[in-house]
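Lab manual, section 2.4: Encoding a predicted structure.

Procedure: take the sequence of the chain (210 residues), apply the prediction step described in section 2.3, and record the output as structure tokens. A sample record is shown.
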Amino acid sequence: MLNPNNVESIDKNRSTGPKTDAGKLRSSQNSLKHGLFAKFVLLPGESMEHFEALHDTYKNDHQPRTSTEETLVHQLAMITWKLRRLDNLEAQAMEKAPETGNLDGKFLNNYSLYAQRMHSMFNSTLKTFHAEQHPRLEAEGENWRAAVLLHDFYKRANLPWDPASDEFVFSRELLDKQLLFNQRWHNFMRNPHIYATTKLQDMRYSKEVL
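Recorded output:
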């Protein structure tokens, strides 16, 4: 029977898990990741660490934020892994062709068909991911612009404002950076000097901060 005197110490030591929404999302994504990885079968000579590194690269590229987005990113990594595997198997088959008697190269057609299917699956999954991610990114952009405008209003009125009070997740420091940029752009547009550059040149370093 539980001793009432020990309840307090037990409650203090008991882990209750993440408290914030961001923490809960990370926790759910970790569970999803481990569950997906458990279902991914490696062949002899393949490394789970290498697959996880590939998966992390895709996560950095696409920045998934929901379980659905996380699943789709995992599928992209898995398809890429299978394409690399297919390349290795094809190379091995070509090397062993003289021994196996497959000198007519018919097996290459099979590898080509498999590769085409994998590329089609990759493109379809990527399209689905972008369609899934677009509404969230659009909503985040609208929230960001609203927060910047409110931040500007309260600063001009010399009134204190906490973005969290209006359910924004952006920090005042980050909003200040955007507001400063807006002010500099506003001043620039009063007397602009247009350089003979293309859009591609103007965006040369943009990917470094995305």
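Check your result against the sample. Residues 46-191 form one domain.
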